[in-house]
Amino acid sequence: MMASRRKQAAPRPVPRLYLVTPRIADVAPAIGLFKTIPAEDSLAAVLLRLSPADDATLIDRIAMLATIVQDKGIALVVEGYARLAARAGADGAHLTGLSAFIDAVALLKPDRIAGAGGLVTRHDAMVAGEKGADYVMFGEPDHAGRRPRFAAVEARVAWWADLFEIPCVGWAASSDEVAPLVAAGADFVALGDWLWHDEQAVVDQITLAARRLRVQESAA
Hints:
Order of helices and strands: EHEHEHEHEHEHEHEHH
Structural class: alpha/beta
Radius of gyration: 16 Å
Strand order of the largest sheet: 1-2-3-4-5-6-7-8
Mean pLDDT: 91
CATH class: Alpha Beta
Helix content: 40-55%
CATH superfamily: Aldolase class I
Low-confidence stretches: 1-7
Number of domains: 1
Number of strands: 8
CATH architecture: Alpha-Beta Barrel
Strand content: 15-25%
């Protein structure tokens, strides 16, 4: 069983950002965009979402983008494609849905990150944790772009953060949601497609989100 956070004496670390890309089909413009990502302590990882392709093409895309991200001291996690993550040099994979996670976790552990999202129920989240998830994610949109009400996301993050040691990621649909997710107990805050809509403003948006991560320090 996972241990309770209430038994932890150490202060909680400042949460960090988890950048989530749009679905990428053409690597060339993505390379330029990835080079704009600043190398700073507030950035923990990039979740790379790829359009379907053959294995060789996917491996090439992952490898090219992984090098850029990892050179900045940031982890590169691939959505799905757990079997290809290690071959392409990624740091791990993010699996959507409990069944997909359970099927893939043995391909990733112990050397790669195994993240779990799309966890519909609290029970699903607990099972993912027991099966070895390195983090669980709450609040991400489904394939149709729908996401839970933000109040429900806050409640799920707060529930998890209060009871379990395994980190949780809260999905922010805008920079305004970063501070509330931190206050609820998120260890990481995911910034999704909205971050990339204006390529010229990516760094500014990351900087703003990073400031809002420190809500707990300003409230102390």
